[in-house]
Specification:
This protein has 23 helices and eleven strands. By secondary structure, it is α/β, with parallel strands linked by helices. The longest helix has about 40 residues.
């Protein structure tokens, strides 16, 4: 009978590449692999012995307490090397200790492997033995991977991963409930990926239907297409019923596994002194018995049949997944590089710290400049957040403020005003106060504005403006001959503009919150590191922002005081124009009244109508108003004319000076605080406090660097350049 032909060179090349990938990125990318799982004492070690060709120590103290990756590969020179692949969560200290662990063996014997396990336990930082009292504080299990690589001219390429056996009961001073959970999670982690072939080991003398390992496999492999069961210890299945169950499973009569059941015979407790070759000879003799004829004919009995089958399955799986693997590794490498680029260069020196902050400030200033200039196509940030379209929100606020001042700014409606100019606001509430109800609550801005300033003041005196003017006139008359005391206009103007303050300050409060929200969100975008952002915000930016907001509010209050408390003054020709118009309207009204009373109206066709007054009649025309009544009407016209001119001027000046200048354009304004100048002004201590990397960031940067290095090497392996 001829020997089995070795795998072709193409298969060997692919298998070798996957082994290199497993060493580099095996814990980060799911690779095609064979994982051996089962309960403790299920016969797992014996199956591994048969698959790999070397014996494991039988000492219970050296039971598997971490995943073990065993690779056999055909090479010209014979060698056995052992190392540790660190877990993703390994600290820098652990990494240094693990890197220093490496040993080579001449022969793989149970005794030499026992020594290796003890040294590996020490390097991984777990207990020297499960009963050790001197190392009780150390964990009993580890998530690092022990890598054993056996090379030689007679080896057949094969890689298998062994994980700790599942157990369910705590042993006082040895294992805990946390250990049970850790091992279970480790087993499930290795089983869950679609590129893993699960080799579930179960003893023949236990009903497979009760085995938890199959339930766990079902959770990971729902259709049971990549799970193969291996029955061990068939010599212990003494009862005829149990033997029949085993036969049916292996023959495929009642199997729910696509890959089916295989059966092997382990070396028993009395076979410790036997070599692997002697054990395999006993296995061959055992399955030569008549009752195993059909199983033997199906090629499902014995370690040789099992090894041939799983090696073929693994090779086929690798070929199938290889193209997807290339794309996945390339995509992950791009993602890792993007994460590293987003972190920027390492910030261990003053220069790198300043450069880091300066880059953020420049990005902030670019976004702020675009937001003020309505250049919304320059950054995608404006597409997803309307609130960051700053100047658009400010213009909306301007318009609402102007409209509110026009409709509700006067204390009393002027005589003969149309209904559209009447007070349309809710009594006691500025009409624009709720326009920005969607803004985030900003407690740090509470001190900028006193809520009392937003309360609409009560109207003093009668609601009718002519009655009010009459009261003030009578209370302020002197001995003026045919005129009135000019100070009365100042008094009445101040009364008529009492609502300007709450409306204006409410507008200022809303605009400040709009600007503040913009700054908060943009700084959050340009500075993703929360610790740096908090240090920068609370230590330097917020205080300067509050100062700039107070300056803007101070300007608005100054303009209010200037307008309300100063003697009325204007050089605007619209004042005289409005006054003359009001006087003319009053005269025309009197003429129409005279004409209607004397029947002097004449009609010209259907388009025009008018009055016919002679010179004599005009000379006798009189408004029939007393001096007091005439003065009150004249005062009303002056007040109304001045109010309209002053209101328009005041709204423009508030928008231009308090908002446009102090909040948007000033070099000391809020949008210019986080700038290159601010960064350049930070001393070494301040830079270190803000921008120095803390321990978690350093650890993440180091990990990203390692991952990128490994993925770059992995990509070279796939391309065949290494």
């Amino acid at each position: 009978m001829g020997s089995t032909a070795p795998p072709d060179q193409g298969n060997l090349a692919i298998l070798t590449k996957v082994d290199k990938l497993r060493e580099l990125i095996g814990s980060k990318v799911a690779l095609p692999q064979l994982v051996v799982v089962g309960d403790q004492s299920s016969g797992k070690s014996s199956v591994l012995e048969g698959l790999t060709g070397f014996g494991f120590p039988r000492d219970a103290e050296l039971c598997t307490r971490y995943a073990t990756q065993i690779t056999c590969r055909r090479e010209t020179e014979k060698s056995i090397s052992v190392s540790i692949i660190p877990s993703d969560e390994a600290s820098s200290h652990d990494l240094e200790r693990i890197k220093n662990f490496h040993c080579t063996l001449k022969e793989m014997t149970p005794e030499s492997l026992a020594r290796v396990f003890k040294e590996a336990n020490k390097a991984m930082g777990i207990r020297a033995s499960t009963t050790s009292t001197s190392s009780e504080s150390l964990p009993a299990f580890s998530e690092h991977i022990l890598k054993i690589e056996k090379l030689g001219p007679k080896e057949e390429h094969f890689t298998v991963i062994d994980v700790p056996g599942i157990f369910r009961k705590e042993t006082e001073g040895v294992t805990t409930g946390d250990d049970i959970e850790l091992v279970r999670n480790m087993v499930q982690k290795y089983m869950k990926d679609s590129r893993t072939i699960i080799l579930a080991i179960m003893p023949s003398n236990v009903d497979p239907a009760t085995q938890e390992i199959l339930k766990l496999a079902k959770e990971a492999d729902r259709n049971m297409t990549r799970t193969m069961a291996v029955l061990t210890k068939p010599d212990l299945a003494i009862e005829r019923t149990q033997q029949r169950i085993v036969m049916n499973l292996v023959e495929g009569n009642r199997s729910d596994l696509t890959l089916g059941y295989y059966i092997v015979k382990n070396r028993g407790p009395d076979d410790v002194d036997k070599t692997l070759e002697q054990g395999q000879a006993d296995e061959t003799k055992f399955f030569s018995q008549p009752e195993w004829t059909n199983v033997r004919r199906l090629g499902k009995a014995g370690i040789a049949a099992l090894k041939s089958r799983v090696r073929g399955l693994l090779t086929d799986l690798i070929k199938k997944e290889f193209p997807k693997l290339k794309a996945e590794i390339a995509k992950e490498l791009l993602s890792l590089r993007a994460q590293r680029d987003k972190m920027g260069p390492s910030r261990s020196t003053q220069d790198t710290q300043r450069a880091y902050l300066n880059k953020m400030s420049e990005e902030f200033q670019t976004i702020a400049r675009d937001a003020v200039n309505a250049y919304y196509t320059g950054n995608e940030i404006f597409d997803t957040n309307y609130d960051l379209r700053l100047i658009t929100r400010i213009v909306e606020a301007h318009e609402k403020y102007a409209d509110s001042m026009w409709k509700t700014g006067h204390t009393r409606p002027f005589a003969d005003d149309s209904k559209s100019e009447a007070d349309e606001s809710i009594p006691g509430t500025p009409s624009n106060e709720s326009e920005f109800s969607d803004l985030d609550f900003c407690p740090e801005l509470d001190e900028i504005l006193d809520p009392v300033d937003l309360i609409i003041p009560e109207t003093s005196g009668p609601e009718d403006i002519m009655k009010y003017i009459g009261e003030v006139y009578r209370a302020s008359r002197g001995q003026e001959l045919g005129t009135f005391n000019p100070a009365m206009v100042s008094t009445m103007f101040k009364e008529q503009t009492k609502k300007w303050k709450p409306i204006t300050l409410s507008y200022m409060n809303n605009v400040i919150r709009t600007v503040h929200r913009f700054i908060v969100k943009v700084i959050g975008e340009v500075c993703p590191d929360s610790r740096v952002r908090d240090e920068l915000w609370n230590g330097f930016i917020l205080e300067e922002l509050q100062k700039s907001y107070r300056e803007a509010m101070k300007e608005a209050k100054f303009l209010l005081a200037l307008e309300s408390n100063s003697t009325p003054l204007t050089l605007n020709h619209y004042f005289n124009s409005n006054l003359q118009k009001a006087q003319s309207e009053r005269l025309v009204s009197a003429i129409e009244k005279v004409g209607n009373e004397r029947g002097l109206r004449n009609h010209y066709g259907t388009q025009e109508s008018g009055l016919i007054l002679t010179k004599e009649k005009l000379e006798t025309l009189s408004l029939n108003m007393g001096n007091s009544e005439y003065n009150q009407s004249y005062i009303h016209d002056i007040l109304k004319s001045y109010y309209k001119v002053s209101q328009k001027k005041f709204v423009d000046v508030v928008c231009q000076r308090a908002v446009q200048y102090h909040l948007l354009q000033s070099e000391q304004g809020p949008l210019k605080i986080f700038s290159t100048q601010m960064v350049l002004g930070l001393n070494e201590e301040q830079l270190d406090m803000i921008a120095a990397e803390d321990s978690p960031v350093k650890i993440r940067r180091e990990k990203l660097g390692r991952d990128i290095e490994y993925f770059e090497k992995a990509l070279k392996v796939l391309k065949g350049s290494t």
